[in-house]
C-alpha cells in the first residue's frame, strides 16, 4: 500500500535518500533553468491569497486558510506523484525532487555567509543581511544581538530545512517530502500570530506543528549523539564547549516555547554551545516574550564568531548523523 501511494520511500527504494543527501552535501540546492519547486509552491499560495481574503472574516477565515492549504498540498503532491510514475523519467524525477527537498548545505552555507557579513560589514549592512533570514525586527539590534538572532534561526531551521524533509522522504518518498515542504512553505508565508495572518495562517501553522512534531524531538537525540561522537574521537579538541544538562532539562525548556517544535533543536544547540537562545523579540512591531533557552545568564558566554562557526559545524555533522541513523533504522525495519 505504501509503495502504491508513496513511490520511492525507503522501503522500496533504499538508495534514494542517501543519494539525495550526498547531492545536497556536494552541490547544495539544484540549479537548473526552471524555478525551484519551493518557489513554485510559494507562487501558488500567493495566487490563492486574493480569493482567500474575500472570506477572511472571524467566522470563515480559518476555514478559508484550511481550504487554501489543502489545495496547495493536493496540487504539489499530485504533480510530484504524476512525474514519479512516468516511464523512464520517473527515476530522474525522484532523484531531482528528493535532492531539491533537502537544504542542509544551503542552511549552513547561508549561515556562514551571513556571519561573515555581520563580522566585516557596517551595522546597517549586518542588520540587512540577518533580516533576510528572520521575520523579527532587527532595526535596533547591535552586533552581539545579531549574532544571537542568527544562532536562533540556524538552530530552529535545522528541523524545517533538513531533518523533517529527510524524515518524510524516508517514510513517504518524494511525494511525502513535498507535501511537507508545501506545508512548511505555507507556514513560512502565512503562519504568523499577528494580523493579517491570524486566521488565514492558523491551519498552516497547526499542520506544520503536526508534521514536524516527531522530527523535532528526534533532533535532540541526533545532535546529542553528534556531540558524544566527537567527544569520543576527539576528547582533547571538542568543538562545542557547553555542558549537557540532561534530556529532562532540555525538554522542560523546549516545552516553554510558543512553537511546539522550534524549541527542541534550539535548546539542545544552546546547551551544547554554552550560549543562550530565544528570549524577548519584536515581531511586526509587537514585543513577544519568549523564554530563554540554554544555560543561565551567569554561566553562559556571548555568541561570537567562533561559537557560531561551531554551531554551523554541529548542524552539518548533526545532519549527517541524523541521516545515517534514520536511514539505518528504516532500512533495517524493511529487512525485518
Automatic annotation (TrEMBL):
A single GO cellular-component term from the record reads:
plasma membrane
The entry's localization annotation reads: Cell membrane
Q: Which residues cross the membrane?
A: 63-84, 91-108, 162-180, 308-335
| InterPro entries cross-referenced by the UniProt entry | Cobalamin_biosynth_CobD/CbiB
Protein name (record):
Cobalamin biosynthesis protein CobD
Pathway-wise, it operates in: Cofactor biosynthesis; adenosylcobalamin biosynthesis
Q: What does this protein do?
A: Converts cobyric acid to cobinamide by the addition of aminopropanol on the F carboxylic group.
Asked if the Swiss-Prot or TrEMBL record annotates the protein with the keyword Transcription, the reply is no
Q: Which GO terms describe its molecular function?
A: ABC-type vitamin B12 transporter activity; threonine-phosphate decarboxylase activity
First-listed, main subcellular location of the protein, grouped into a coarse class: membrane
Topologically, how does it sit relative to the membrane?
Multi-pass membrane protein
**Gene from which this protein is expressed:** cbiB
Q: Give GO terms for biological process.
A: cobalamin biosynthetic process
**PANTHER family xrefs:** COBALAMIN BIOSYNTHESIS PROTEIN CBIB (PTHR34308)
Q: Does the keyword Secreted apply?
A: no
Q: Which family does it belong to?
A: Belongs to the CobD/CbiB family.
Q: Which UniProt keywords apply?
A: Cell membrane, Cobalamin biosynthesis, Membrane, Transmembrane, Transmembrane helix
Amino acid at each position: 500500500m505504501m509503495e502504491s501511494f508513496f513511490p520511492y520511500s525507503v522501503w522500496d527504494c533504499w538508495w534514494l535518500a542517501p543519494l539525495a543527501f550526498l547531492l545536497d552535501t556536494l552541490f547544495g540546492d539544484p540549479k537548473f533553468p526552471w524555478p525551484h519547486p519551493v518557489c513554485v509552491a510559494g507562487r501558488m499560495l500567493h495566487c490563492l491569497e486574493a480569493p482567500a481574503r474575500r472570506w477572511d472574516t472571524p467566522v470563515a477565515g480559518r476555514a478559508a486558510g484550511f481550504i487554501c492549504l489543502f489545495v496547495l498540498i493536493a496540487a504539489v503532491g499530485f504533480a510530484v506523484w504524476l512525474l514519479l510514475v512516468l516511464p523512464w523519467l520517473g527515476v530522474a524525477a525522484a532523484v531531482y525532487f528528493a535532492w531539491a527537498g533537502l537544504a542542509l548545505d544551503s542552511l549552513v552555507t547561508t549561515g556562514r555567509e551571513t556571519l561573515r557579513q555581520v563580522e566585516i560589514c557596517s551595522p546597517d549592512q549586518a542588520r540587512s543581511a540577518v533580516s533576510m533570514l528572520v521575520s523579527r525586527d532587527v532595526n535596533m539590534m547591535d552586533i552581539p544581538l545579531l549574532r544571537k538572532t542568527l544562532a536562533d534561526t540556524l538552530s530552529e531551521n535545522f528541523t524545517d530545512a533538513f531533518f523533517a524533509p529527510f524524515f518524510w522522504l524516508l517514510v513517504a518518498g518524494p511525494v511525502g517530502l513535498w507535501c511537507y515542504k508545501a506545508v512548511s512553505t505555507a507556514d513560512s508565508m502565512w503562519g504568523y500570530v499577528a494580523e493579517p495572518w491570524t486566521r488565514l495562517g492558523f491551519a498552516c501553522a497547526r499542520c506544520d506543528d503536526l508534521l514536524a512534531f516527531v522530527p523535532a524531538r528526534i533532533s535532540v537525540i541526533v545532535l546529542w549523539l553528534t556531540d558524544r561522537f566527537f567527544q569520543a574521537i576527539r576528547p582533547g579538541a571538542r568543538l562545542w564547549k557547553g555542558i549537557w544538562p540532561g534530556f529532562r532539562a532540555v525538554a522542560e525548556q523546549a516545552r516553554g516555547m510558543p512553537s511546539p517544535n522550534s524549541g527542541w533543536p534550539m535548546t539542545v544547540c544552546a546547551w551544547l554551545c554554552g550560549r543562550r537562545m530565544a528570549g524577548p523579540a519584536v515581531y511586526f512591531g509587537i514585543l513577544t516574550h519568549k523564554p530563554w533557552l540554554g544555560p543561565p545568564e551567569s554561566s553562559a558566554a556571548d555568541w561570537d564568531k567562533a561559537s557560531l562557526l561551531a554551531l554551523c559545524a554541529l548542524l552539518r555533522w548533526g545532519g549527517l548523523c541524523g541521516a545515517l541513523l534514520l536511514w539505518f533504522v528504516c532500512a533495517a525495519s524493511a529487512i525485518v
